[in-house]
Design goal:
Elements (H helix, E strand, L loop, with lengths): L23 H12 L9 H10 L1 E5 L4 E3 L7 E7 L2 E5 L8 E6 L4 E2 L1 H6 L6 E4 L3 E7 H24 L9 H10 L1 E5 L4 E3 L7 E16 L2 E8 L4 E2 L1 H6 L6 E14 H7 L4 H7 L1 H4 L6
Antiparallel strand pairs: 1-8, 2-7, 3-6, 3-8, 4-5, 4-7, 9-14, 10-14, 11-12, 11-13, 11-14
Pfam families: cNMP_binding
Keywords: cAMP, cAMP-binding, Nucleotide-binding, Phosphoprotein, Repeat
Family: Belongs to the cAMP-dependent kinase regulatory chain family.
């Protein structure tokens, strides 16, 4: 298997620019893969066409290294099929420690391209893996400005949200990529009891009250403020919302839609599951 960051892994036309002559079925797979990845969802149709034409396909066997920590990075990757493991070595842990695993639609390799630094981790194929690669020049031209702007906007805020404080910097940055701002006016209902939620919210400013129907009346359970979050239960278990969440005056939030939340759930699942206990003692309507 070729070294993934070798210059020979990105086909180039005579003008030096990457190109791909993908058959229709392969292009359809690529489009589906990119639309499941957070970084590409906000791109214009024209920008996506440039990306489609620049991307190239590579396959790896279980155990192969796709990128190696400390190497120079030339390409960015999106997983089409299979599972990859991410390993990091440090002064405290010279033996590489597995930090997480990545599945279809997940991406890696952007940090070295964004900041011109060596690879921050090693990514190995845990199963047979198929990936789509994008060269440094196209990544920087199409995705760099958008990605850096969004990460700078939310990085400091996320560090101070208790839910995210134990995540790695990379995990927080990945969440920042997916966040979208939203706002509510006084008495706007963000989440309605009994409905199926479609978003997970973190409050940036303002307050929201949480109420639940009990014997025909609305019982106030809690008042939420900055850095609190709501909406996780319905998304985690695909069940109706157990309470209504209403704005108390103007409220600014950031949100993850259902697809992004499920894609990013791994690092947060244990923390979110612990928070379910908050609801365990609440009396249900008879």
């Amino acid at each position: 298997v070729l070294d993934a960051d070798s210059p020979h892994t990105s086909p180039r036309a005579a003008n030096g620019k990457p190109h791909s002559a993908l058959p229709p079925q392969a292009r359809e797979r690529l489009q589906k893969c990119l639309m499941s990845n957070i970084l590409f969802r906000a791109l214009s149709t024209e920008a996506l066409e440039v990306v489609y034409d620049a991307m190239f396909e590579r396959s790896y066997q279980s155990g192969d290294s796709i990128i190696r920590q400390h190497d120079e990075g030339d390409n960015f990757y999106v997983i089409d099929s299979g599972i990859c493991n991410v390993f990091v070595e440090s002064e405290d842990h010279p033996e590489p420690m597995m930090m997480t695993n990545l599945g279809p639609g997940s991406s890696f390799g952007e940090l070295a391209l964004m900041y011109g630094t060596p690879r921050a981790a090693t990514v190995k194929a845990a199963t047979d893996v198929n990936v789509w690669g994008l060269d440094r020049d196209t990544f920087r031209r199409i995705l760099l400005r958008q990605t850096i702007r969004k990460r700078r906007m939310y990085e400091d805020f996320l560090k101070h949200v208790p839910l995210f404080e134990h995540l790695t910097d990379y995990e927080r940055l990945t969440i920042a990529d997916a966040l979208e701002p939203c706002s509510f006016k006084d008495q706007d209902v963000a989440i309605k009891e009994g409905s199926y939620g479609d978003s997970f919210y973190v409050i940036v400013s303002g307050t929201m009250k949480v109420t639940q129907s009990h014997n025909g009346t609305q019982m106030e359970l809690n008042v939420l403020g900055q850095k609190d979050f709501v909406g996780e239960m319905s998304l985690m278990f695909n069940q109706p919302c157990v309470a209504t969440v209403t704005a108390m005056g103007p409220v600014q939030c950031v949100k993850l839609d259902r697809n992004s939340f499920i894609q990013l759930l791994g690092p947060l699942e244990e923390i979110l599951t612990r928070n379910m206990k908050t609801y365990a003692s609440v009396p249900k309507e008879s």
